[in-house]
Amino acid sequence: MKIYTNENNTSTLKLLIAAKLASKKVELQNASFADDVFTGPRALPLLEVDDQLTFFSSNAAVQYLFPILDLSTDGQCQQMLEWEATRLQPAVATVLTSKSVPSDLKQALSSLLQTVDDLLSKYKYILGDKLSAVDISVWSTVYPLYYNKELNQLYLSQFVHIKRWVDELAAAKAVQEAVTQWNGSVNGPFGASSALGIPQVSSLVSPVGSPDEAELGVTAEEIEAAKDSWLNGLSKLDEPSKEEKVVLPIEGRRNVLITSALPYVNNVPHLGNIIGCVLSADIFARYCRICGYNTLFVCGTDEYGTATETKALEEGVTPRQICDKYFEIHNAVYRWFDIGFDYFGRTSTDQQTEISQKMFLKLMENGFISKQSVDQLLCEKCDRFLADRFVEGTCPHPGCGYDNARGDQCDKCGKLINAIELIEPRCKVCGHKPTVKPSEQLFIELGQLEPSLRTWISSTEHQWSPPARAVTRAWLRESLRARAVTRDLKWGVPVPIDGFRNKVFYVWFDAPIGYLSITQVATKQYEKWWKPDKQYDVKLYQFMAKDNVPFHAIMFPATCLGINEGHVLVSHLYATEYLNYEEGKFSKSRGVGVFGTDAQETGIPSDVWRFYLASIRPETSDSSFSWTELGTRNNSELLNNLGNFCHRSLSFCANAFKGVVPEIKPTQTDYELMALVNREVAAYVQHMEKGRLREALRHVLSVSRLGNQHMQSEQPWVLLKGSDDDKERGSTAIGVCCQLVALLAALLAPYVPHTARRLREQLNVDRAVLRLQPRNPSLIQYLPVGHKIGKPEPLFAKIEPDLLDRLRAKYAGTQSERANKENGESANQTVAQLESAIAEQGEKVRQLKASTKDKTVWQPEVNKLLELKKQLAAAQAQSNGPSSVASLEKAIADQGDKVRQLKATTKDKSVWQPEVDKLLALKKQLADAQAQTSAPAPTESVASLEKAIAEQGDKVRKLKASTKDKAVWQPEVNVLLDLKKRLAALQISK
After folding, report:
1. Residue 27 DSSP one-character state
2. What integer is the mean pLDDT of 688-692?
3. Which residues, including other chains, have CB under 8 Å from residue 543's CB and lie 6 or more apart?
4. CA nearest 539: which of 772, 284, 339?
5. What is the mean pLDDT of residues 60-68?
6. Which residues form the WHEP-TRS domain (predicted)?
7. What is the pLDDT of residues 430-445, one digit of tens each?
8. Residues of 288-323 as b/e, b for ≥16 C-beta within 10 angstroms?
9. 3-state secondary structure string, 530-553?
């Protein structure tokens, strides 16, 4: 075996270490990018095994040489190797070759190294207790940082686990021998530091891209296939199908039914929710449409259940009002993100009730529903059984002990909980300790359905994503037990049988039925999609985060199997892991992270958000949102790679050929380029078809990088000034690049639809032209010779580091903390402005009063002054924030004395009225504070609140009868109004 390499190439070190560990002999042979080792673009190192097998990816070569750890079943090894190649190595290379390193790059590199350190804190090696290809690749990349004292101090000094790991591997005999053969030293420094770690692909445009993505050595068969597609590809494309307003299955077509987990309506969706379900589903749906599949994509808000009732209680409105409010918020957020639903509906509809009840009755008729008496928590103070979300307490699971666990799940350990198992449970409404009482409920007998369910899962799970398989298998490690389908609530689908009509269906049961009812609202013929005739080929694709998998892989399929009416079951279940926020976790309940409405306010285009979220989609393990990385990917991948190539190519066409696509006469080099592009397009299609959206996006970037390399290699700006042959080559180069731009417009459309629309306008082509043929994915002549393009314009703009710093600071903490900070800053600003305005207005009043005694002249200005002082008092009250009852009572007493003294000294109302206004404002604050602390609290029962309202009403009537001074009785009126509001909220919850 031979390794072709240039000097000080750390990727070569990977290969040598792998070979030494595997006791395989390799020969080093010096090469350079100028050497004609193989045809096509140059990439080093190359591992030549024999005449038939050559590796152009250093990480792939390491896996070949050292195939010790096989984690292919969950993709962890492959994912980490990709991470090393596309993120860690380019960052290290930039540090090694730059004299000055921006602070954002330092932060990005530290974040990458923290990932390694975190893994090593849990394991002996990066992926466990065995040495793997990942250790070899990452060690070789980190090697020059570690043995350079200055760089070690800057980047690695705080990572103790990396230090232990580097030293341990450096002490191994095989590693020492490999470093010696590489002509270095494990003690460093070594070689020409300027060459260390440089991405080994010539003319690589994007510093964040993978050095291993541009592979060489295309075969004669690939070149011939590329030539055939180029010459005949357009004729092989299927005719675009006519788009119907109502999408129904079509016989003889591939019918794709796509859903994403129904978002709950108790908060604004955050970025983790968006990429986990609706954005992932939208990317896939758009891909299906450019492939010509007959596609229906439906989603909607999940509106029933205790979370809705809880939120309604918090806001003092009805559950319907909460649903209406958050449906509009969700709808607006998704529209801004350019989510292209065929229909976005909701579950609180008549169609949902009809279909849910019908399916339940059929399940009952088939013998899969039983009755059981269940011990539930009853709050005697609220006089109601407490649903899971209405009870909190200490988590009962060993080793956890979280004291704020919900009755259905612990947010700390993530385990499911039976509410009666909570330690020291308390009612979330009133804080009272509930008692355990029996309540009869209906159950679905999952145990009876388990054999059929296991048979179905075993036949289809190979098409699911790794997280979906892992969660499902975890559930099936034990036998399934009967699960309640009813509960004691008011807000939900009513149970349609006697004895249970005062109950509703458990939301886990009816929420997935929402897909069917939303399809019914959209098409009026939901059964054509969900219970199709045999002649229709319908495949169901579902997208969600892994916490939703049990309902889509176990519960809902079991329901459909029990009904036994031919419902479509999910064939492709694409679940993701979790997206974290910076160093913590996204949380809707605590308001942590960036939410959909926040993204709109940043001024960063929605396509940039879509691209970045897709690029960090947590497909096989958790990933993290980073403001720094958002900027880096925008500036390097979108702006410098994609945007640069598209704009240069179309600008050359516009300037050199007046916007007319020139004639293309491909050479062997051009067909080799097309073969490499076709590899990327084929990989793109393969990953898309399997729901690996992040992986597919990498291949789009590779197409753009190949285009940039071709542009730099051909240099058409030089050729067009040369001989006739040169001009022909130059025009061909520009023509090929324009065709690549058209291809990119198609490949990008699922990810950045707005940008794709702009590209189509610049190319002057219709969407129907830019299609893909998944059976023959390749570059074709999208643009005929002589086609006139539109006006080229830049597609992306740079995101400056200072903007990212401001956004990172703005969205730190929780939503409530941010709101309080903004309100405080706004109030402080208002106070300053009002004080200045009062000073100016006061001076104006004094001058007017000094010049005339005519009250009609100066009274309007006095009124303006009084209004300004009133506004100032309110603003000061807001900026000071809530005060304690004791401090407010003291302030009121002091202010009352001040008012009495002023009234005793003058009858001029303009003098003492502002102080009276301040007194009234203080009394209002006191009333609010008393309402929060005085009895009866909002934890009272309906009866006690009604009694308190009657007593407070008598008090108000007596005060109004004894005095006309509003300042005396208004605080008591405020208390009465607050009591009535609490009563209304409590009645809603019941």
Report:
1. E
2. 95
3. 258, 259, 260, 261, 276, 277, 278, 280, 281, 284, 574, 575, 691
4. 284
5. 79
6. 830-886, 887-940, 941-990
7. 888 999 999 899 999 9
8. bbbbbbbbbbbbbbbbbbbbbbbbbbeeebbbeebb
9. HCCCCCCCEEEEEEEEHHHHHHHH
Find the mean pLDDT for residues 392-412. Answer: 87
Which stretch of 167-176, 200-209, 363-372, 902-911 has the lowest confidence by average pLDDT? Answer: 200-209
DSSP conformational letter for 43: B
CB 302 within 8 A of CB 264: yes
Residue 878 clears pLDDT 70, i.e. is over it: no
* pLDDT score, position 128: 82
Q: What is the mean pLDDT of the chain?
A: 83
Number of helices and strands in the chain (H, E): 38, 21
- Is 232 in a helix, a strand, or coil? helix
Encoded tokens for 790: 């539109």
Q: What is the distance between the alpha carbons of residues 799 and 803, in angstroms, rounded to a whole number? A: 7
Q: Which residues contact 159 (CB under 8 A, 6 or more apart)?
A: 113, 114, 116, 117
pLDDT attached to residue 240 = 59
Query: Cα–Cα distances in Å, from 372 out to 438, 450, 724, 974?
Result: 10, 20, 89, 48
CB of 981 within 8 A of CB of 964? no
Render 184-208 in DSSP notation, one character per residue: --TT---S-GGGTT--SBTT---TT
- CATH class, domain 2-195, is mainly alpha
* Type of residue numbered 542: Q
- Residue 251 reports pLDDT greater than 80: yes
Q: In sequence order, what are the residues at sequence separation of 6 or more whose Cβ sits closer than 8 angstroms to the Cβ of residue 834?
A: 868, 871, 872, 875
Better-scored residue on pLDDT, 823 or 740: 740
- Which residue is listed with tokens 């979906």? 468
pLDDT digits (tens, 9 = 90+) for 411-432: 788 788 888 899 999 988 788 8
Q: Is the pLDDT of residue 309 over 90?
A: no
| CATH fold match for the domains 220-238+626-809 and 373-438 | no
**Which tokens sit at 411?**
């947010």
Q: Do residues 552 and 475 make contact, with C-beta atoms less than 8 angstroms apart?
A: no
User: Which amino acid is residue 704, in one-letter code?
Assistant: S
> pLDDT tens digits for 712-732?
889 999 999 999 999 999 999
Residue 874 has pLDDT above 60, yes or no: yes
The yes-or-no verdict on residue 356 having pLDDT over 60 is yes
Q: Is the peptide bond before 45 cis (omega within 30 degrees of 0)?
A: yes
For 86, 106, 638, the CA distances from 112, given in Å and listed in that order, are: 11, 10, 21
Give the H or E element holding residue 624. Answer: strand 623-625
Q: What is the CATH number of domain 220-238+626-809?
A: 1.10.730.10
Handedness of CA 543, 549, 554, 556 (dihedral sign): negative
Quick check: 945 pLDDT over 80? no
**Nearest CA-CA partner of 975 in 940, 923, 922, 916:** 923
Contacts 24+ apart (CB under 8 A), 647-652: 647/792, 647/793, 647/794, 647/795, 648/711, 648/737, 649/707, 649/711, 649/734, 649/737, 649/738, 649/740, 649/741, 650/738, 650/741, 650/762, 650/763, 650/789, 650/792, 651/792, 652/716, 652/717, 652/734, 652/737
Instruction: Kindly state the tokens that stand for 982.
Output: 């609490």
816 pLDDT band, cuts 50/70/90, is: low
CATH number of 373-438: 2.170.220.10
Strand partners, 344: 299
Residues 6+ positions from 949 with CB-CB distance below 8 Å: 976, 979, 980, 983
Q: What contacts 715, CB < 8 A, 6 or more positions away?
A: none
Mean pLDDT for 376-393 is 84
The full set of domain ranges for the chain reads 2-195, 220-238+626-809, 248-363+450-476+510-613, 373-438, 935-990
Q: Would the pTM count as exceeding 0.85?
A: no
Whether 350 contacts 424, CB under 8 Å: no
Report helix, strand or coil for 810: helix
Rounded distance, CA 586 to CA 272, Å?
7
